[in-house]
Every structure is written in structure tokens, then in C-alpha cells.
Amino acid sequence: MRILMVGLGDIARKAYLPVLSRRGDLDIHLTTRNKVVLDEVGREFRIVNRHANVADALSATSFDAAFVHAATPAHGELVRLLIEQGIATFVDKPLADTFAETEALVTLAAARGTPLVLGFNRRFAPDYVALRAVDANLIVMEKHRHRQPDLPRRVVFDDFIHVVDTLLSLSPAPVRRRTIETHVVDDMLHGITLTLAGDGFTAIGMMHRNSGLDEERLDVMGGGMRYSVRNLAERVEAQGTQSVKRRPDWISVGRQRGFEAMCDDFLIAVRARRPVDAAAILATHAICEAIVRHAETHIREEVPAGADCKGGSNQQFI
User: Fold this and answer.
1) How far lies 35's CA from each of 11, 21, 41, 251, 306, in Å?
2) What pLDDT is recorded for position 272?
3) Per CATH, which fold does 123-255+276-314 belong to?
């Protein structure tokens, strides 16, 4: 399978290339406008196929799939080009940093029958996956940053989107109500609290951008049990007493954080020409757009009881 990797930044080098470069069934091609980085990454991962830009790569050969790791503002143009070429496309979250552009790209992929997958690795992280089987009625996810207030759209679409998508994927029933609170100081977003609720459950997501530590914690509670995952590496189970399980040394970071399983799933989707999961992509980006709107306008928004919101991986707001 011939793969084009677009963009060779930190996430491509730390998370994706260590996984993909070990596979013998992939013919990987690299592209970035920075020739120094292109040659450096090519040597590091022993990849000889290197292109100065996407246009050169597409004119040189055909591709079965592409991984897009470029900066968010470039996603729209790149993804549109790849989909129009019929190339199955994997994109680091977000698909785009506005709901309107996200919807347009999803619609295009669906119309062309081209697989389009978003890089939500927490859907595949084994400790998070295990929590889907828990009979939970309270889900709480916190993802904090140390001294990193930023513009609302950048915070929400580039970072908090992981919290949104994880809550949606773990919600055990359709989401009926949504409440958003944001804390903005001098146009910089400092804090977010998102509450999703449905029959018998509540899911709460929180982020503070001026916290004392970079950290992530997921708690799932119900049936006399509490399951916690800390920084995707440590699992805590409590039923009166507490037990702690840490990632064994021999398990790679790529596997523990879900990147191996996520890449495998995408390559299966490529071979099967699996259609885009439009509802899941749109649900996550729609909530992100609502959070940005709240932060920028300071208007509280609630989805009224009875709104038709589907749960699980197929959630959407209508």
C-alpha cells in the first residue's frame, strides 16, 4: 500500500512514523516544504521517497492513502485535494477549525465515497477502550495545561476537542442536554467546562489553561465502582479499596496511547473503502464550534431537553 505523509512536525515524528515505518506492507512517501526537515526525517526513518510538496508527489505516483499532519489552517485545502483525487485520508484532529468547513469536507468525502478518518487516538487507547464496558452514570474528563491561555478557537479545536470526542465516545446513551461555561480573560481562553447529559448519565469535561501542571485524567463511576486513567499511562480501580496498575515497561507509548490501533483501523478502512462516519465527525466539531461561540460572545448556551442527539460514535446535534 502506497502512503503519502503530508507534514513532518512533532506529532508525525513522535507518534505516527515510529508506528508506520515498522510495517513491511507500506511504501511510505514523505512531503514537506522544509528540505532540511524532509531529509532529516527521511534519514531517521530510512524512507527514501521524498517530495518537496504535495503536487510533486501526486504527479510522481499514485497513492492509496494519505496521512495529513500539517498545521490546522492548511487542512482544508490539503484534504479537499486528496479527496478529489480519491485518496483515502487520515487527518490529525481537527478536520478544520470551523464547523462550516468541516461539514463541507465531510460532505465531499461522503459524495465521493472516499474514506476520511480523524486522529482521535483516545478512542483506541486500551485503558480508555476498556471503560466502554463499564456501567457508568458519571464520566469526568480533565485535561489541563500549565500557563497556556490562548485564543478560544485554537484552544478548543486543537486541544479541548480531545475531551469533547472522548466524552461523546463514552456516553452510554443519547445526549439530550448540553451546557457550556467558559472563562475568558483579555480575549484569552483560560477555562472550559462542558456538561453532556442524557437518560441516566452525566459527562463532564474540564480544561484549565493556566493550571499548575500539564495533566489528563479520566474518571468513570457507577455501580459502586470508580475507574480512573491518569495521563493515559496509569489505571486506578476503586471498590472500597484502591488498586493501581501502571503501563508495563515493554508496552510502547504508541500502543498505550492508541496510535498503533488507530493506524491499523485506518488502513483497514482504506482496504475496505469504509465510508466516512459523518455523524461522529460533525458531532464533535459542532460542540467545539458552540464552545468557541460561547467564549467569544459570552453567551450561555444550553441544548433544551428533548433535542435529538444520538449517543456513542454516531452522535449528532440536529
Assistant:
1) 18, 20, 10, 34, 54
2) 96
3) Dihydrodipicolinate Reductase; domain 2 (3.30.360)
